[in-house]
Amino acid sequence: MKKIIVAFLLSVITAPALAAGGGMHNLDVDIDLNNKASLQRGAKLFTNYCLSCHSAKAMRYNRMAEDLGMSEKQVLENLIFTADYSKKPHGEPTKIGSLMDVAMRTSDTKQWFGTKIPDLSVVSRARGADWLYTYLMTFYIDESRPYGVNNQRFPNVGMPHVMWELQGLKKAVYKTVKGHDGKEKKVIEKLEMVKPGKLTEAEYADAMRDLVAFMVYMGEPAQQTRKTVGLWVILFLMIFGVLSYALKKEFWKDIH
Ligand code: HEC
Fold first, then answer.
1. Whose CA is nearest to atom 19 of ligand 1?
2. Span from the CA of 113 to the centroid of ligand 1 (angstroms)
3. Cα 27 → chain centroid
């Protein structure tokens, strides 16, 4: 038991330190999983901008429709852009009960991107909401990279800035600092907008909050139910506690 407690304490202490690595702090994002409208907007961004490369194979469209309060028709018409290649050589239209698979074949993605593109079903659990938000906010122009962009949260990432039309393009402004070893090095001070996108900076930040909220929902679709059930269980235990105490008093009242 002692060992378990020590291991737990250690993991609590070291986790933030590990997550922080890379010299950049995460930006904070305040998501609300009870806000269905925000999750719906997030789902729309996800299916429009991410599902073309990333799969989310732990999720089915009809489950998402039900959880986010959308009709199956709405989802079929607005959120499904892929074909299902698992069935026939040329694929067939994705059905409402299908898994959220990617539009490309996995073998192609390896060839085109030189890396296997990760499934995003549970990425929120591995990375955390703040990390994801920071990642989506900090793409910047870097001509030395294959897609002309780099990322502050995930340096040299192999993903293009797929939402540059929405956010616009930012450039890095550097400053020189002294490292621990006394040597001077250049670090990014801030990112500056050079080519504005369709959204204002505030609108883009809101959109990314919705997208992250959707990914957090996807990482654990039952979490809202779990919390509601948990509340009822605690309420039940409290009432049960009061009743059993009254019962105990009743049983013992004649015994002295
Ligand atoms: C053009 C294809 C493409 C699209 C579209 C795309 N990505 Fe990626 N993404 C990649 C590739 C390739 C990688 C792997 C990069 C690497 O490992 O260097 C990646 C990596 C990631 C990672 C890091 C995963 C990890 O934990 O290592 C996240 C998070 C991510 N993408 C989120 C998104 C989101 C959210 C969207 C939609 C807004 C999106 N991606 C759209 C190609 C894409």
1. 159
2. 11
3. 14
Nearest to 61 by CA among 38, 27, 84: 84
Q: Whose CA is nearest to atom 40 of ligand 1?
A: 50
Read off the pLDDT of residues 161-210 as tens digits, 9 standing for 90 and up.
999 999 999 999 999 998 888 889 889 999 999 999 999 999 999 999 99
pLDDT at 14: 55
134 Cα to the center of ligand 1, angstroms: 13
Is ligand 1 within 6 A of the CB of residue 117? Answer: yes
For ligand 1, whether the C-beta of 31 sits within 6 Å is no
Look up residue 235 and give its two tokens: 């309420």
pLDDT at res. 101: 87
Residue 12, pLDDT above cutoff 60:
no
CA distance 35 to 45: 16
Contact predicate 169/194, CB 8 Å:
yes
The rounded distance, in Å, linking the Cα atoms of 198 and 64 is: 28
